[in-house]
Specification:
CATH architecture of the largest domain: 3-Layer(aba) Sandwich
CATH superfamily of the largest domain: NAD(P)-binding Rossmann-like Domain
Number of helices: 12
Largest sheet: 6 strands, parallel
CATH class of the largest domain: Alpha Beta
Number of strands: 9
Shape: globular
Structural class: alpha/beta
Strand order of the largest sheet: 3-2-1-4-5-6
Length: 319
């Protein structure tokens, strides 16, 4: 890819939170000029030192060809795109392509796509699998859907964000794929919590059990990535129970609409709701381990063991 390829499109970025900031940074590091807006300007300022232009209004992104969005929820996406001061508001020159990397409902995505089409703009749904640390390691995965020519136009930018981009077709198919992904994320995390607590209550340290698991046929990128949190009880948030509950709400709603029974996901949803109800909303969803231990009559203590998360050697992990 030449320098001309990287600068051929003027790029804007909306949302520099836990995921948006490291993603925008990857474009800057690759040499892509990026203009950035965030509701709280101070959260975007770190990117200014890396070459970004931090703007005060979404309208200031009007000159961009492509604008990425990475926001927390469906309502946020509608606000930044369809709101009175949004990307598609009257009197604002719209971008040619809007790429949304958030996890939002299909209904919201449909509304935003229709509004973009009315303004002759393409809308690409491009939700991601990963967290800030995974982004920094270059191991993010993206799934995207929308008009294939529009995806082809910005694919070089998408590929700068992570290691793999999967195109799944038109419309909102990428939304369903990401929701399915996050349903599995929660189910596997809960299952991993249950078996880890079982092993520890039987006298096996978490570090030893997870070392065996991660080097067996049952080990995965995810189990290796989460092992340090499970061993040392570091619940610094990468993805919170509140956000996971939101995705389970969306996933189970899709299952009802499509007539797919999901008993395991439904039970996991109840356990995630239990975490939220207990106020564990701002920690990492690895707190499912601690709640499982409490329900098992076991008091956990950090094991203070150095555990490889699989990222330093080039492996990646979802969320």
């Amino acid at each position: 890819m030449t320098d001309a390829d990287l600068t051929a499109l003027k790029v804007g970025w909306i949302g520099t939170g836990r995921m948006g900031l490291p993603l925008a940074r990857r474009l800057l590091v690759a040499g892509v000029p990026v203009s950035v807006w965030n509701r709280t300007r101070a959260k975007a300022e770190p990117l200014a030192a890396e070459g970004a232009t931090v703007v005060d209004r979404i309208a200031d992104l009007a000159g961009c060809d492509v604008v990425f969005t990475m926001v927390a929820a469906s309502a946020d996406l509608e606000e930044v795109v369809l709101g009175p001061d949004g990307l598609l508001s009257d009197g604002v020159r719209r971008p040619d392509v809007i790429v949304d990397c958030s996890t939002v409902s299909v209904e919201t995505s449909v509304r935003v796509r229709a509004a973009a089409a009315e303004r002759d703009a393409d809308f690409i749904a491009a939700p991601v699998s990963g967290n800030g640390k995974v982004v920094a390691a270059g191991m993010l995965s993206l799934v995207c859907s929308g008009a294939e020519p529009a995806v082809a136009r910005v694919r070089h930018l998408l590929e700068l964000l992570g290691r793999h981009v999967t195109y799944v077709g038109d419309d909102e198919r990428a939304r369903l794929v990401k929701i399915c992904h996050n349903l599995m994320l929660g189910v596997v995390a809960q299952s991993m919590a249950e078996i880890t607590v079982l092993a520890e209550k039987g006298g096996v340290s978490r570090a030893a059990f997870l070392d065996f698991l991660n080097n067996s046929v049952m080990g995965s990128i995810f189990s290796r990535y989460k092992a340090p949190a499970y061993v040392n009880l570091d619940f610094t948030p990468t993805f919170t129970p509140a956000l996971l509950r939101k995705d389970f709400d969306l996933g189970l709603a899709a299952a009802r609409e499509l007539g797919v029974p999901m008993p395991v996901a439904a039970l996991t949803h109840a356990l995630i709701q239990n975490a939220v109800s207990q106020g564990r909303t701002e920690e990492d969803f690895a707190v499912l381990l601690e709640l499982q231990a409490v329900n098992s009559g076991l008091r956990l203590e950090p094991e203070d063991v150095e555990v490889d998360d699989g990222l330093s050697g080039g492996a990646g992990a979802p969320s």
